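User: Run a structure prediction on this.
Assistant: Running it now.
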Amino acid sequence: MKIIKKKKINRLIYGKNKTGGRNNQGKITVRYRGGGHKKKYRIIDYKRNKFNIKAVVKTIEYDPNRTAYISLLLYKDGIKKYILSIKGLKIGNIIKSTKDNKILNIGDAAPLYNIPLGTIICCIESIPGNGAIYSRSAGTYSKLISKDKKYAILKLSSNEKKLVSLNCIATIGSISNNNHKFKKLNKAGNNRWLGRRPRTRGVAMNPIDHPMGGGEGKASGGHPKSRSGVYSKGFKTRKKYKKSSKYILKK
């Protein structure tokens, strides 16, 4: 996939302030954050609600805020929007969003009721009109495996099976940059550029600071836990009364 740089579109890009992991009172709420390279945020169109207006892929660009690449679309009516780039999408391709029962190509967006069974899809809505939340990371995708009167069953990249309304919009294809998982950070400085500071191991702390701290020499430790005492291996933390739990068929 050819990545190109182009003059920035001010309407779609704005400055992004750093927090250093601090809240509005200046207190650190997320540790080990700070520094990092300057970033600008690109506004991504997750709703794909410009129906039956064709768009040309003008660029495929790197986005510092996400693992996937992004594509700049120029619609026939002159509007420009960024979307998450789809694997196989090339500069000059024409894509569209449609509610009609037409032949769909890579990069096209359509409601689930018009997408054939077995199709690889990504950027899927959870609630119609709210914008995509599923399958947005580099190389991820879902598979449409079943439909009934109201819901479609999706198989996510995690092998989880989920019920989603047939009126939700999804994009045909899988997300670009599927080699991201093989990327290696070659030195500690790479993490610093990303705004991550060095972590202190729990066993190196005092007992007052961490459940795994204290002890003479290396006698401390025990079962791996978080700073708040929650077991970090095998302990389920999902809330039982979460509303979306009823839409999960298989974990």
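The chain has two domains: 13-179, 200-251.
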